[in-house]
Amino acid sequence: MSGHSKWHNIQGRKNAQDAKRGKIFQKISRDLYQAAKAGDPDPANNAQLRLVIDKAHAANMPKKNIDRAIAKASGIGGAKFEEVTYEGYAPGGVAVMVSALTDNKNRTASAVRSAFSHSGGSLGASGSVAYMFNRMGLIEILRDDLDTSEDDMLMDALDAGADDMKASEEKFQIFTDPSTMTSVRDALQEKGYDLDTAEVTMIPENRTAVPEDKVKQYRHLIDELTANDDVADIYETGILPDYDDDEEE
């Protein structure tokens, strides 16, 4: 039994690491798409795209994943990709928004619907949960090796044009209007800050605690959506029980 338990724990940690890696790749893929879409798909002529590619390499993202994300934005190969959003509820009443980039809306809709169905969730109509989120610019700066006080960071963020800031032990989260995120990002970089995240995203107004008996189904939904190559981002309101985080460590 002890051998089986040890294998189970190792496998569980590996699955958690794979899921975390998948989410990182998913986020970088979206950033690659947006950078290539907003500018030249050739990194030699697009400084922002070069920065994201460097981030992809640092995360050990496979070259084929990088190329696929850029191809989606540039239309290489003749495929035309569209941005589509799906809304629904995960088990436990957690609101979920799924942002996808697809060249086949029927395929993507079917896969997203199946993910919700497999996990005991429900896919809703457009607008069913969108009102629970605010579209905002988000910039995150890690506090490791950063010799800046919370007050100084707040002043620099406000001087750069940010609207608000939240601080935790791990990072500073700086919030902006979507239209000013780029200018705030550039201003903070000019001040010498190394940004971990700089994006326009959907921030939930309130959070929903995931019931303990729904955690497994909830995780299954998020993992299945994350594994879908068409899914660019997942926004959700869920908060997992504290014990669940402890068990993963």
Automatic annotation (TrEMBL):
InterPro entries: Integrase-like_N (IPR017856), TACO1_YebC-like_2nd/3rd_dom (IPR048300), TACO1_YebC_N (IPR049083), Transcrip_reg_TACO1-like (IPR002876), Transcrip_reg_TACO1-like_dom3 (IPR026564), YebC-like (IPR029072). GO terms for cellular component: cytosol. Residues 81-236 form the TACO1/YebC-like second and third domain. It is found in: Cytoplasm. Keywords: Cytoplasm, DNA-binding, Nucleotidyltransferase, Transcription, Transcription regulation, Transferase. Coiled coil: none annotated. SUPFAM superfamilies: YebC-like. GO terms for molecular function: DNA binding; nucleotidyltransferase activity. The keyword DNA-binding applies. Residues 5-75 form the TACO1/YebC-like N-terminal domain. Residues 1-21 are annotated as: Disordered. The keyword Cytoplasm applies. One of its GO terms (biological process) is regulation of DNA-templated transcription. Belongs to the TACO1 family. This is Probable transcriptional regulatory protein FC31_GL001317.
